[in-house]
Amino acid sequence: QLQLVESGGGLVQPGGSLRLSCAASGFALDRYAIGWFRRAPGKAREGVSCITSSGGSTNYADSVKGRFTISRDNAKNTVYLQMSSLKSEDTAIYYCAASATCFRVRSGTSDYWGQGTQVTVSS
Known about the structure:
By secondary structure, the chain is mainly β. Helix content is 4%, strand content 48%. It is built from one helix and eleven strands. Strands 2, 4, 5, 6, 9, 10 and 11 form a seven-stranded mixed sheet that branches. A four-stranded antiparallel sheet has the order 1-3-8-7, with no helix packed on it. The longest helix has 5 residues, at 102-106. The chain is globular and about 40 Å long.
């Protein structure tokens, strides 16, 4: 079965950190750009970050720039999102998606989507 599985979410205090993982099952991630999205209650889905298949290029939403870092380990078939200095407004379900390019990921036309992992930032 071809799928993406996110993990690493949870409850964290403001200012804290979490690392999310996006693991591929049934296919090799190294051919795909991987993006992270989030959906907060009552809000539209927001693109958070994307990394190209080689890992040579990354991009971030302005809302997370300087606080989040995306990386990948193709040997482990996994992409990570390191989140630091977390704020209450980062509370959302975080999803990863795979497509040929970050342009396609950002346009929402991804080949694979994960089920999401909940991140809650609260004191």
